[in-house]
Predict the structure.
Amino acid sequence: MMGKKVDIAIVGAAGSCGRQLAAQLLDEHKLDPTARLQLVGHRGGASESELHGLRVDLRDAFHDDAPELELVYEPAEISADIVVMLAGSTMPSDPRANVDRAALARINQAIFTTYAEELGRRDNFPLVIVQSNPVELGVHIFARHLGRHRVLGAGAFSDTMRFRRELADTFGTRRNHVRALMLGQHGDNLVPIWSSVEIDDRDRAEVQKTIAGIRSGRPLTGLAAEIVRWRAELLSHLAEGEVHQAFALAAELPPEVRAAVKPFLVHTTAGHTTEIVT
């Protein structure tokens, strides 16, 4: 449980990721019973009714020591120390559909701006964590209104977690034994920081030799093109119903490419990629 009373607002709480985050916060006792968890939806949208059911479900499961659960439908009604941004449109789950982050940005820009402008009018700015895509755009807009020290983007953290797990598979160990960092733009333009890779109980020379083998003949400048090419091939398998083949092919790719393309496989076969990772 948190050491002091901290109020949290989840914008987009009725979505798959928002529901998962709310349940995790309550299940892990991250909020004091005297705190408030605001479940933020969109008035006039499906979430306006869905949040009522979600609140009842959460209270049934966690009422013993849960904080106050408040339903919110307008940005002006948000009153929290931490605001988690999970609202907005997502990538299409149809593998035949075009993956267009620019189009996604145009749709979600208005949502980011609405909430950023409202929160920016406050005397005391909350800490905003952006998980909605494009994460970089969300961070830019919120930072413009609240200042960069009050905004965190979750993209690099999620990408780093995936990169570390793929490296763990490559080295035959657990992720908690791997230290590594993935930067760059969430999506096609990821930048694995190979110099940051360390594996517990592995000689550094051995680790560097394995990494050299992975990178041989593959300059970092070509990674974005690799990601685009492999993503297209994997999604083409899914479009033909060849799910097993798609995941088997993905397993043979280099670890940094796996970290980039697997989220698309997850999104088109099992729903939103961060539903559990969040």
Remarks:
- Strands lie at 8-11, 36-40, 68-72, 82-85, 127-130, 151-153, 178-184, 190-199.
- The mean pLDDT is 92.
